[in-house]
Batch of 2 targets.
Target 1
Amino acid sequence: AKQNGRDNAQMFAEEMACAVTRQFAYEQEIGQGLKQGQFYLVYQPKVFQSPDQITGLEALIRWQHPERGLIPPGDFIPVAEESSVIIPVSEWVIDQALKQLAQWQQAGLDIVPVAINLSGRHLISDALLPYVAEKLKHYQIAGELLEFEITEGVLLQDIHRCIEVMTALKAMNIRISVDDFGTGYSSLSYLKRLPLDILKIDQSFVEECDTYSEDYKICETIIHLATNLDLVTVAEGVETAGQADTLTSLGCQLFQGYHFYKPVSPDKVESLLQQNKLD
Ligand code: C2E
Ligand code: CA
Ligand code: CA
Ligand code: CA
């Protein structure tokens, strides 16, 4: 048994070493992919009531890997977040999205704000604020046209630093939303301490909001809470008209999901903005 135990310990150590090597190799590959232009952005519209009332866009990253094909962000973003490689990835997203907005603006389109998903590591880093300020200036984009989506877990890690950074972002007129609301820690005290604008109701509650009464009640409560705190609510992952109708009746203001749009290419955004009826 003792012999066996040692073997297991050794196997475990080898597996750990292997996992560390794998993580390291993956990080290297992400950095490499960035340099070689393997990443691109797609944009998912957020709408007011109907598809021709687009109020904003969410930038979502994609990785076209030369051998492994298209890798979804759920695969590599968590790996990138384990190390500092998330910062160059995230900076690339900010640069790319602002460059895109500037192009649309120059083409005479009626542009709408773009939301960018920000990982906690980047939010609390010293790098974010100077980078964003410089890029807004460089591309001549108003802060109102930028929004950052941040998940709840992040907000509780270092609340003081979050308050500091968010206050500076607000001073640039950048909007801040809480992503996947309701899935993180249950403390709600951060809602009153942070300068937030938007709550995004997680799609896990939206999925059965019109069939399962517990989810209905959760959506109702989140919307009620948001309204009382003067926050805008966005429902994400809306896939059916029934869900949209239910959420509308509860007072949800904005919608995002396959029922309206899947994430689309920049070209498609351009034609959608040309037909947009929001004023
Ligand atoms: P998220 O921010 O919660 O984004 C919503 C995800 O749900 C997206 O998946 C979107 O394509 C998908 N989705 C939208 N509508 C529907 C719907 O009606 N039904 C269903 N089933 N899914 C829907 P995606 O693009 O694969 O992104 C997954 C996650 O990866 C994002 O979740 C976000 O956490 C992260 N992510 C994506 N892009 C970035 C990025 O540029 N930076 C960072 N830090 N994270 C990113
Ligand atoms: Ca998001
Ligand atoms: Ca989300
Ligand atoms: Ca999510």
Target 2
Amino acid sequence: DAKANATGTMRYFVQRMGEQVRRRLVLERDLRDALELNQLSLHYQPKVDLATWRIIGFEALLRWQHPQHGNIPPSEFITVAEECGLILSMGAWALQHACAEAATWPEHLQVAVNISPLQVMTEDLPATVEGALRLSGLAPHRLELEITESVFINETRGTVNRLHALRKLGIQIALDDFGTGYSSLAYLRRFPFDTLKIDRAFVRELLISRDARAIVRNILALAKSLRMATVAEGVEEPAQVAVLSAEGCDIVQGYFVARPLPAHEVLPFVRQFRERSRPHMPTGFHLG
Ligand code: C2E
Ligand code: MG
Ligand code: MG
Ligand code: MG
């Protein structure tokens, strides 16, 4: 009957909730050892300049290979790492490894590292970045930090000062996932970012929604007038490349170019990409 049914449903949800809580506890416990046990690695996703169709650099993305649960996506473990403070040591590790890796690449290639708001809130971030540059010997202009606008939610005077201190090291700073936050436009006045990354959500809609295309066009115009370079994230199809190119976007990144690659595949990829010609773009592309 209905009552038994409801009880059954309830039991199911409690069980599912229990599973989630358990998984979360296991992740938190195991994440503490992941660094020492060498379970973390960085994959690198290329960024391509639309004007020249050349690779200009790679974004470093954390990967966690769990001995029992396999590959755990950053969407799951970054939040856990932020909630228990582990993101600080993981973030420092990522910075050091990404800089050391990039120092072995040809000099025209940059590396971008994602930085958690929690790292930006700590006083020693500029020292950590400086240390990573010094240890690796990477030229500062080849390093870009990607931060999200959530950095500004609990903004203090320290936050913006720290971003300026980082900029003084000679590195670049990008605003990641632009357009998904609370009040994106206000943040553009707080700090002069070098680069603006348009979130995948807009790119996904680009071919099916006139509104998304209008938003992208205006984000690009805004970025240009503020002298920021523009990157479109999550580009998966040639027609998206064509539209972004027509709208004046500078750089594309996404599965259309490549998925994030393990470190040892970076240089071979760069070599074979040079031989690969620019893909044919549909011309005169219009929304139907
Ligand atoms: P993000 O920085 O915006 O990175 C882009 C995400 O989109 C990556 O997911 C990437 O693999 C994925 N992606 C790239 N191209 C495509 C595409 O064409 N289609 C689709 N569907 N997805 C695409 P990933 O690697 O799972 O990382 C997710 C998020 O986790 C990142 O978003 C970033 O916020 C965070 N993250 C990753 N590594 C780090 C890190 O070292 N430190 C910090 N603080 N956060 C990190
Ligand atoms: Mg990013
Ligand atoms: Mg992003
Ligand atoms: Mg994103």
